[in-house]
Amino acid sequence: MDIIVPFSIRKKELGGTVSEEARKLFTKIKQKPELAVGISAKGLPAHINLYKYYATTANGHRRLLFFSRHWIQARIENWILLFYRTKGDEIGDNMSSKNPAFSTLLVKNMGFATEDLSRSKLDTPLYERF
Amino acid sequence: MAALTQPRRMTRKLSKPTLVESYDISADSKRRISLRRTGSKYFSVFAFSDGTFKLEPRKLVPAEVTIERVERVPIPKGARRAAARLAAAIDKLPRP
To answer: What angle is formed at CA A75 by the lines to CA A70 and CA A76, rounded to 5 degrees?
Structure first.
């Protein structure tokens, strides 16, 4: 399993750089992905899942949302970071479709990630892989 | 010692599927066909314009990644199309 952070998401959610705290979290998520909460949504296409991850760091609670693409035969799974928020944040407090701010930003962030990934080339990737 | 503590990475090498069995079948009166000795209960079915059907065992998450807690929520409007586009972009990513 790989965690991919597109540059635009890195800029919007992580302030431009992947902090040491985030790196530690990514390592932990890769070791224990079963701690994530899967979002079962009827409208999602096949081989796609959304995962919420509630994390606790030295600097407070974090709420992460990943977009997962997986192929069972190839044993490939990529988790794309879409949100990295704190607990008191407007989005981080309620990551569900009942929160209109989350719904709007989810579609926007997916669009930003799509743009970065589709413009990436082998020698100039517009994302970081963990 | 640092290398020992690194999490084990999944094998990325694509294993080419081999032909195990081949047989002819006919559809029944309701245009259904039966598969023999299937390894899984659920399949994702892809129908092509030339009449070809492709079936993939439907296991949404790898065996070692078992997400126990699941929230059932409706997906926001517009997210379905955005998700499909993002998935297509991920598929085109160069593999490490």
So the answer is: 45
Give the residue from B15, B94, B42 showing the smallest Cα distance to A123: B94
Residue pLDDT, tens place only, A25-47: 888 888 888 788 887 777 777 77
Domain ranges of chain A: 2-129
ipTM reported for the complex surpasses 0.85: no
Assign 3-state DSSP to chain B and report helix, strand, coil percentages, each to 5.
20, 15, 70
Distance CA A44, CA B45 (A): 16
> Is B16 part of the contact surface with chain A (CB cutoff 8 Å)?
no
pTM assigned to the model: 0.64
Nearest chain B Cα to A49, which residue?
B60
